[in-house]
Amino acid sequence: MSQSPARSFRPFRPSRSLCAALVLMPVLGVGALAACDAAKASASPERPVKVALGSAGGHPTVQAGDRLRVSADGGVLTEVTVTDPRGRQLVGGFSRGGTVWTSRAKAAPDTKYSVLALTRDPEGARSEAKESLTTGKVAKRNRVVFSPRPQGEVVGVGDPIALTFAYPVGNKAAVERRLEVVTDNRTEGAWTWESARGGRDRIVWRPEGGWKPGTKVTLRAELNGVDSGGGRFFTKDYGLRFTVGRSPAVKADLDADAYITPGLGLTPALWQGPGG
User: Fold this and answer.
1) Rounded Cα gap, residues 189 and 204, in angstroms
2) Residue 39: per-residue pLDDT
3) Residues 158 and 80 in one domain
4) Beta strand extents in the chain (DSSP E only)
5) 241, 264 Cβ separation under 8 angstroms
């Protein structure tokens, strides 16, 4: 029986033109995708993070006594610095996933604040925004009278430090937080609230056991921007420096026009910060 001859198979070898086509196909595909991406990017350009300022209550303007609000649209805030003309910063905190920063302290009246906000967009790109705002002036103000007084009065070992206010102080804790007494010998003492003549509010700092002669005393009253109550603001910072005299006998009547002080002492000096 005859058998048909076995078929012989030749290995397939693509032609050079086909190889070139196969090699070019993925290259053309990548180029097409890149072109599509470029067209897509040009159709929707990258949007920068927008930073806006306003009050914590949602108003675009910031009045005295408002808390400052900084918000970011299209990204998050990573750092916020708010500074007044004297270099003092408003401390605050973040909320809403880092898109809002709110100051803890209230804004002072008639003050220009500089704001530096660092931001990050969803792709991780970082940028910064510099803004500024000026708070409005106030219609109602509170004022303070110091004792010892700055005009030629002797400061004896029994004299306390007293601040008497022109109008009632409803926010006593807010006022007291802004008062600081510093001495060169670390004299201990405490503040107490009293009623002055005519029912006016008064806060008094008395040293434990009285003053030691020669003690150098500094009072800092950073009251500018503090709402004393009912929307009545302080518009200045105050300070008082004096040295305690050597007189052992002092009659201190805080409601009188003068002290009766036998002996000699040094005249106190009063300074006022800018504002109002």
Assistant:
1) 10
2) 41
3) no
4) 50-55, 68-73, 76-83, 92-95, 100-103, 112-120, 126-134, 144-147, 161-165, 179-183, 189-195, 201-207, 216-221, 238-243, 269-272
5) no
Q: Say yes or no: 67 and 127 in one domain.
A: yes
| Number of helices followed by number of strands (H, E) in the chain | 2, 15
Domain of residue 112, CATH code: 2.60.40.3780
Indicate whether 121 and 199 sit together in one domain: no
The verdict on residue 257 lying in a domain is: yes
Q: What is the extent of the structural domain holding 155?
A: 144-272
CA 162 vs CA 183, 214, 262, 266: distances in Å: 16, 20, 21, 18
Residues 235 and 158 in one domain: yes
DSSP 8-state secondary structure symbol assigned to residue 33: H
Contact 233, 146 (CB under 8 A): no
pLDDT at residue 16, rounded to an integer: 52
Q: What single-letter amino acid sits at 1?
A: M
Alpha-carbon distance of 250 to 244, in angstroms, equals 12
Does residue 109 have a cis bond before it (omega within 30 degrees)? no
Q: How far apart are CA 211 and CA 159, in angstroms?
A: 8
Number of structural domains in the chain: 2
Over residues 71-125, the pLDDT tens digits come to 999 999 999 999 999 898 999 999 999 999 999 988 888 899 999 999 999 999 9
In a domain, 59, yes or no: yes
Phi-psi region of 73 (alpha: psi -120 to 50; beta: other; left: phi over 0): beta
User: Token match 């009659």: residue?
Assistant: 251
Give residues with Cβ within 8 angstroms of 249, minimum separation 6.
156, 158, 261, 262, 263
Tell me, yes or no, whether 261 and 174 share the same domain. yes
Structure confidence at residue 158 (pLDDT): 75
